[in-house]
Amino acid sequence: LLEKTGLGGEEHARLFLQPSGEFDNIMLATPQGIVVYATNPQVEGWDVSPFAFLTCVARARPIPGTAAAALSSRRETSLSFAWMRLPSVDHLIASARATAASFPLVLGSAIVAAAAGLVAVDASDEDFWLRLLFAAALGLPLFFSVRMAAERRAWRPTRLWTARLLGLALVAGFFFAWPAWSETVRIERLLQAAIAFHLLAAFAPFVGAGERRSGGSGIGANLQGEFWEYNKTLFLRFLISGLYSAVLFVGLAIALAGIDNLLGVKVEEETYARLWLLIAFIFNTWFFLAGVRAVLADAELPAEYPIGLKVFSQYVLIPLVTVYLAILTLYLGRILITQTWPSGWIGYLVSSVAVAGILSLLLVYPISDRTENLWVATYARWYYLALVPSIVMLLLAIWKRIDQYGITERRYFLAVLALWLAGIAIFYVVSRSRNILVIPLTLCIVAVATFGGPWSAYSVSEASQVRRLTGLLAANEMLEGGRARAAEREVSFEDRREVSAILRYLTQTHGTGAIEPLFGSLAEIDSVGEETRGSKRHEAESRARTITEHLGLAYVGRWEGETGMVHLFAERRDEVIPIADYDYALRWERWPSDSFHVAGETVIVQIGSDSAFVRVTRTTPGGAEQLSIPLEPLYRRIRSGAIASVRPDVYPASELRLEGESDGLAVAIYLNNLSVRESPDGSKFSGGGGDIYLRLKDPPR
């Protein structure tokens, strides 16, 4: 045995072990009753990993009728020794092959994701390759969950491959459903699926397992303890893999930069993106899997509890949660006294307190049954009890918001999360259960249940906003026979704002399919949209404006208030501005007036008292000359859609241009921002700034 592990030969055997037992679960039993444990040796079969440290504890177990009974006075003797052996190429190849054989679909997903990303870097049609990348990335936690469940439960190959084929079907379904979703829905569904599959990886090996496994003692001896140790192992391996990957990427990136700058070999910027894709998906995944390949092989996982984790949980996290709960309780008292509705901001605080509190209780779970930590169980019960009033406040705040503005995906998810927190709190308070597996299991079920179907976040939100739009049209007598018609009377600003916001939300998130029956055919009205599915944000703004104006209503932008204030901005990225006809560049930042000293003269830029002109005044020894440039023509072109936005309220810098020329001045102004106050009397420009390009001519004589 010692020769196999590289520790030496007969001398060590006589000195330490005198082995006649078998190597099983890092334990060696001898006839004399001496049991030797090797803690954390990183031993995989007979193959000892490099840089591993082995600690042996020789514990006397007297057996009646043996000479070992004489050792009863010696309770424990610790013997420590270590070795460092560089891995051979054969060892690395064998380890990589073993990992690939254990996790073929996980590594296959990583390779597909990396390849798709490499192609997407230069592809003109990157949407297909990004879709493939995201679908393959979802396969990583999904197929990992299947493999770990199969390993712990000893599934037969037929059952294992049935589960893998089901996983492939789920990933393929996500891939083919992707084009029908808007950009907003794509991101939300991707995050939702990723959360569900990662939660699945946390509990999949333990669902349906018995409460105890044979053998072992300590915190890993029961199902809950093994579940905690398993997730701790995965989390630590995740951190180590991330650290190795980050160091490898930074090191190679610096090497590439050195080749580029020192050796003169051109390294394209895309090379760094390709390097990151290869390391993040292939190296990081392979390295992670190699460390967890045998995480469930032993009957009992390691039973050590990190002292640093205890200090962090007990003396940092739990006190912070207590302070936050006290703040929320005081805020509840204020609400009851002042009889006001909870602030919408409460959702962030309650969510943060719930996450931090549950995390702190999960972290101290393995030591909660020790004599010195019996207070943890009491704290847990009072924590969940104290959390209930905060959850009630959160539900009231969400209900008020939904009552005012209907359901959207974010409000839906926040409401579902609040209900889930309420259920978890009530479960632990009433049952006094110590079952921590319930938390990821139920949260995963919620994530999957709300992903699709008529009860999903997306279907419910779309139906809610369509009902609100129909109600607003009916309230303003703009609905006849189930069809929308143009307004025949004055519509309040509030209703116009709500109609504009609903159309903007629907065209961006869900498309116009749900409101098509209201208009008969939107194709004749909405010439901007691509079919009926959701649009990009700037395109949705134009579509919503077109439909709103078709209803005879003035469109209300995202940032417009009842006073009619509009804020416009310039998009300067990757845009080149010709300045050949000008001699000076000035930065106009002070509104409404700014002055500059140019070639010994004074140039003043200001907005006129009527807020309709930009006036540029040149002061020379011979007098003053003034040039007025009207703002209204530019603003009319923006509002009419003649200048297309790149995003809501953001326009190409080359289009936000004002020009004017006089006998002594030539001026071009590229606006960076512009604030306009609309009123029945016209538009007044109340703020702005930009870059001024100036040419001074010879002053007139």
Summary, kept brief:
This protein has 701 residues and is α+β, with helices and mostly antiparallel strands. Helices cover 50% and strands 16% of the residues. It contains 18 helices and 18 strands.
Can you walk me through this structure?
- With 701 residues, the chain is α+β, with helices and mostly antiparallel strands.
- 50% of the residues lie in helices and 16% in strands.
- It has helices at 10-17, 89-102, 104-122, 126-153, 157-177, 183-203, 223-262, 269-292, 307-338, 346-363, 375-405, 409-431, 438-449, 457-475, 493-509, 516-519, 537-550, 632-640, and strands at 27-29, 34-39, 43-44, 47-48, 53-60, 76-82, 479-480, 483-484, 565-571, 584-588, 593-598, 601-607, 613-620, 623-630, 650-652, 657-661, 665-679, 682-696.
- Strands 9, 10, 15, 16, 17 and 18 form a 6-stranded mixed beta sheet that branches. Strands 1-2-5-6 form a 4-stranded antiparallel beta sheet, with no helix packed on it. Strands 11-12-13-14 form a 4-stranded antiparallel beta sheet.
- A hairpin with a 2-residue loop joins strand 7 (479-480) and strand 8 (483-484).
- Residues 1-84, 211-221, 296-302 and 527-531 have low confidence and may be disordered.
Topology summary:
Blueprint: H1 10-17, E1 27-29, E2 34-39, E3 43-44, E4 47-48, E5 53-60, E6 76-82, H2 89-102, H3 104-122, H4 126-153, H5 157-177, H6 183-203, H7 223-262, H8 269-292, H9 307-338, H10 346-363, H11 375-405, H12 409-431, H13 438-449, H14 457-475, E7 479-480, E8 483-484, H15 493-509, H16 516-519, H17 537-550, E9 565-571, E10 584-588, E11 593-598, E12 601-607, E13 613-620, E14 623-630, H18 632-640, E15 650-652, E16 657-661, E17 665-679, E18 682-696
Parallel strand pairs: 9-15
Antiparallel strand pairs: 1-2, 2-5, 3-4, 5-6, 7-8, 9-17, 10-18, 11-12, 12-13, 13-14, 16-17, 17-18
Helix pairs in contact: 3-4, 3-8, 4-5, 4-6, 6-13, 7-8, 9-10, 9-11, 10-11, 11-12, 12-14, 14-15, 15-17
